[in-house]
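Case study 2.
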Amino acid sequence: MPTPVFLTVDTEFAWRHHRAGLDLARVYERSLEPAGVGVTYQLARLRAHGLKATFLVDPMPALVYGLDPIKRIVGTILDAEQDVQLHLHPNWTDARLDDRSAHAPGNLTDYDRSGQQALIEAARALLVDAGAPSPVAFRAGSYAANPDTLEALAALGFAVDSSHNGSMQPDFSKVDLAPTHMAPLRHRGLIEVPVSLIEDRPGRLRTVQICALSASEMRAALGHARVAHHAAVVIVSHGFELANRAGTAPNMVHVRRFDALCALLEEHQAMLPTHVLGAVPPLPLDRRDAPMKPHAARYYWRQAEQLWSNIVAERAA
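Prediction:
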């Protein structure tokens, strides 16, 4: 049977650009459309390869910058016939334009159950006001979710969460599942669809993410999932991830990875079809999918690639 693939793009204003005092136009550009390789570029590549993706949009910057920029990005995604679901960084609730250092606690796990539920409900209302269909899927900012988060989501009628990331435990991700658990399951009232992982060195987990794995590692991880009959694969990216951190130039290492991934998924779409979190197909919920084991040659190749990325691509003006 085919292995469903969920391409997920966390779509948010980067706090670093707000903190730097940039105006709205530059915060938007450098966070969402940096250097011509942002959301619009990604949507175009997805369309060219016939792929589906979920863009998890954080609407909370609307509390500072107004709803118009959120309407703009939501409209861009929906016009491309891709999926919009909910993302949430709560630090924006106390952010201000006249004091760029002001912010609320930054992780949902900093709040109790009722506080989390109120934040999620408010964020959902903002996203719908920005033109999105009422979301049914969620990912916490920085993967900072815990059992209270899942129970709050279930109480609010959400069907799917994709916050569990074992590589981020215990500092951020606090969902009560084992770090290596990456198979979908019914948990605390909804379907948890964890982020996929590899074991890049013995005992060390790494997220299957555009900026985290080389193209060869992603190819191998997808092959491993297919051969091992994994219930699903969840790949992470960000709206700004294909550019340097300043948002001023493409990071061509990351662009090539994204393009290679799209081409690979198009080539193998019969066995690795892309789906969206807003319409999750029936999935087996009893699997014990295991991360791919370390491979020294791929690891050291990525280390060399990352060195080039950090020295050259990240410093490009």
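The first strand starts at residue 5 and ends at 11.
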